[in-house]
Amino acid sequence: MLTHGDVVLRPLDGADARAWRDVRSRNGDWLRQWEATMPPGVHQPAGSYAQVVRRLRRLARQGQAMPFAIEVEGRFAGQVTVNNIVRGSAQFASIGYWLDHAVAGRGVMPVAVAMVIDHCFTTAGLHRIEICVRPENTNSLRVVEKLRMHEVGFAPRFLHIDGQWRDHRIFAVTTEDCPGQMLARLISD
Fold first, then answer.
1. pLDDT, tens digit, for every residue of 23-40?
2. Residue 111, exposed/middle/buried by CB under 10 A (0-12, 13-18, 19+)?
3. What is the rounded distance in angstroms from the CA atom of residue 142 to the CA atom of residue 148?
4. Which CATH entry fits the domain spanning 2-188: 3.40.190.10, 3.40.47.10, 3.40.630.30, 1.10.10.400?
5. Chain centroid to CA 163: how far?
6. I need a surface site. Which of 20, 25, 86, 135 has the fewest CB within 10 A?
7. What's the whole-number mean pLDDT along residues 52-62?
8. Where are the domains of the chain?
9. Would you say the pTM of this structure is higher than 0.85?
10. Is 186 exposed, middle or buried (0-12, 13-18, 19+ CB in 10 A)?
């Protein structure tokens, strides 16, 4: 479990099903424009919450992902997932996240992502973390700005989101960029 103030990150759990569905349902319109979708011709059922958790746990056991539930003031509020973990000579991963609109704008996501990056660099031993953001997603751009992540590239038609292939800006941080901890750096600003 990772904590800072009212923000708690813990493993995503089957017991979160009702809260997860409630938050996703209330935020459907707000999240849809940023959520990955399956391109035409790719048939992968969305699956139940239980199937999603099983898949993420399997990937976690294989060392390919780290799914975290976000709690704010003791209530389920979103998710941060470390994806595409690559070991060997690379030692990098990407981070994706979503948050309940009811707690957006309170600094929750920068704190949550900073804690996950610290966990990746220390406990997990990764060297580089990437976050890819649609150019129109001002909320996520604000997260990487607050974390002082470097923009390292642009990926045209990078992910299929909300029914179309969408461009993304790529941001990254390495252990050398953040010799202390990311959370400490965020708080000191």
1. 999 998 988 888 887 788
2. buried
3. 10
4. 3.40.630.30
5. 21
6. 25
7. 90
8. 2-188
9. yes
10. buried
